[in-house]
Amino acid sequence: YVFHLWQVQYRKLLLMIMVLGIGGTHLSGFQVSVINYTSYIQKFINETWLERYGSVLHQETLTLFWSFIVSVYCVGGMIGCLCSGYLTAKYGKKKCLLFNDVVLIIATLHTGFSRRAKSFEMILIGRFLEGIGAGIHMNAHLQYAGEISPKKLRGFVNVTSSVFLALGKAVARILGLRYWCYSFSSFFPFIYKAGCLKGKIKH
Q1: What phi and psi values does residue 187 have, to the nearest 5 degrees?
Q2: Nearest to 167 by CA among 41, 17, 40, 39
Q3: Rounded to whole angstroms, what are the CA distances from 51 to 44, 57, 62, 88?
Q4: Mind giving me the DSSP string for 65-101?
Q5: DSSP string covering 19-43
Q6: What rounded mean pLDDT belongs to the chain?
Q7: What is the pLDDT of residues 63-121, one digit of tens each?
Q8: CB–CB of 102/202 below 8 Å?
Q9: For residue 54, how far is the Cα from the chain centroid?
Q10: Which of 48, 29, 9, 35 is nearest to 137 (CA)?
Q11: Cα–Cα distance measured from residue 152 to residue 105, given in angstroms and rounded to the nearest whole number
Q12: In the predicted model, what is the mean pLDDT of residues 114-130?
């Protein structure tokens, strides 16, 4: 009987680690690395601009747009970090994490459907929202995991967030291999959409 209780307890703990990791820090690592495939997104920006205005962007302007897309994630992350303390104190850590999933799903829908809508601005908005979600989650995840895990395993459970972050970066690298991008020129929106599915698993 005691062994059965032990099994149930640690099975639930493992499930909690997987749910928090896949829907949270794994997704953050994924979003940080997936934007590194510069040429394909720059090509999309150029094609969109050409279709709208009939002219190709100068390289300096293209680089500026690219810089905005990359750096806006950090701006969103800073805002998310600043808000996370207030949100977790007012609404609780679990509700805050669930609400954060909604933000991440909205963000990945923006980036995922950007090619269909022919709007690189949607990537910009999506990246900003992803940054906010990452900033909130990176703080709330550790607090929530530490509070609900057994005292003797608290350190181990908190370390798993870093493991899932690294795994997210690895998955983004694998999905964005140059060969894959060459073979499927319109594949990058679906790389973003994978983040949406991970958010749903947690929700």
Answers
A1: -80, -20
A2: 17
A3: 11, 11, 15, 45
A4: HHHHHHHHHHHHHHHHHHHHHHHHHHH-HHHHHHHHH
A5: HHIIIIIHHHHHHHHHTT-HHHHHH
A6: 79
A7: 899 889 888 999 999 999 999 889 888 888 888 888 888 888 888 888 878 888 888 89
A8: no
A9: 34
A10: 29
A11: 34
A12: 89
Structural tokens at position 61? 């302007």
Using a pLDDT cut of 70, give the percent of the chain over it.
80
Q: What whole-number distance in Å separates Cα of residue 58 and Cα of residue 167?
A: 36
**Are the CB atoms for 135 and 83 separated by under 8 Å?**
yes
> What whole-number distance in Å separates Cα of residue 129 and Cα of residue 112?
13
Structure tokens at 36: 């590194």
94-100, long-range: CB < 8 A, 24+ apart: 94/144, 96/136, 96/140, 97/20, 97/24, 97/137, 97/140, 97/141, 97/144, 97/202, 98/203, 100/133, 100/136, 100/137, 100/140
Q: What CA–CA distance (Å, rounded) separates 200 from 197? A: 5
Q: Kindly report, residue by residue over 16-34, the tens digit of the pLDDT.
A: 888 788 877 888 888 888 7
CB 191 within 8 A of CB 50: no
Q: Specify the DSSP class assigned to residue 149.
A: S
